[in-house]
Amino acid sequence: MRIVITIGGSILLKEYDNRKFEAYADIIRQLDVEHELFIVVGGGRPARDYIGVVRDMGESESICDEIGIQVTRINARLLQLALKDCSYPAIPENFHQALEYSASGKIVVMGGTEPAHSTDAVGSILAEYVGADLVINATSVDGLYDKDPNKFDDAVMFSEVSVDELMGIVSGNETKAGTYEFIDKTAIEIIKRSAIKTVIVNGNNPENVRTAISEPIGTLITS
Ligand code: UTP
């Protein structure tokens, strides 16, 4: 299968050390034996911290986004280094470059592309562009719940949610730099228009990414 894996920066940088990068590199190398992989890496806390500094300078949201994109590319570079020779040694800045680099047969790792969305949307657009069979979105939660599981003991996780239901849930969320929660609206629009199979899993355990390829896990977004 041709698979796009998006990994939240908050997952990779939770402990601010090399371990999650190495753990993901191990799994990705194993999956690469059977599948063609494209990896999209998010910004996490450093992106939000830098965006906060730039916003306090009074700069526009697009400039804040640009700084966020730079941080996602640094994180992508770190994962690329952990993958060593398996990964293509440059970070694509757009979808055309991603496709071009994949012709090398190596794993393509990238961060953000342009302002006004998050790396969730990059993953969906990339999947559409390269005709991927599956998007796995590794986040910091197990999946989509009917209410906040940190606040409510009786919160129930959805094993499936339709794109329209999901859009209803996230429609009130902010679209400012560094504030995309759970999954952003652009990503949902793309999943809808191209019926891209997308699974949201808890990326704190990288094994969940492997599981998502063959078994039901997390929340499947159906179109
Ligand atoms: P992320 O994709 O990490 O955003 O990009 P996020 O969902 O807020 O953070 P995670 O999921 O916890 O890692 C960081 C920021 O970079 C900008 C946005 O401002 C985003 O919030 N960005 C990223 C873009 O503007 N365009 C892109 O293509 C990617």
Quick overview of this protein structure:
The protein is of the alpha/beta class. It has helices at residues 9-12, 19-32, 44-56, 61-83, 95-102, 119-130, 163-170, 185-194, 207-214, and strands at residues 2-7, 36-41, 108-110, 134-139, 160-162, 198-202, 219-222.
Give a description of the structure.
The protein is 45% helix and 15% strand. It has 223 residues and is α/β, with parallel strands linked by helices. Strands 3-2-1-4-6-7-5 form a seven-stranded mixed β-sheet, sandwiched between helices. The two termini are 19 Å apart. The structure holds uridine 5'-triphosphate. Uridine 5'-triphosphate binds next to α1, α3, α4 and α6.
Please outline the helices and strands.
Elements: E1 2-7, H1 9-12, H2 19-32, E2 36-41, H3 44-56, H4 61-83, H5 95-102, E3 108-110, H6 119-130, E4 134-139, E5 160-162, H7 163-170, H8 185-194, E6 198-202, H9 207-214, E7 219-222
Parallel strand pairs: 1-2, 1-4, 2-3, 4-6, 5-7
Antiparallel strand pairs: 6-7
Helix pairs in contact: 2-4, 3-4, 5-6, 6-8, 7-8
The chain binds uridine 5'-triphosphate.
Residues 8-10, 42-44, 47, 64-65, 68-69, 72, 112-119, 122, 177-178, 180 line the site of uridine 5'-triphosphate (UTP).
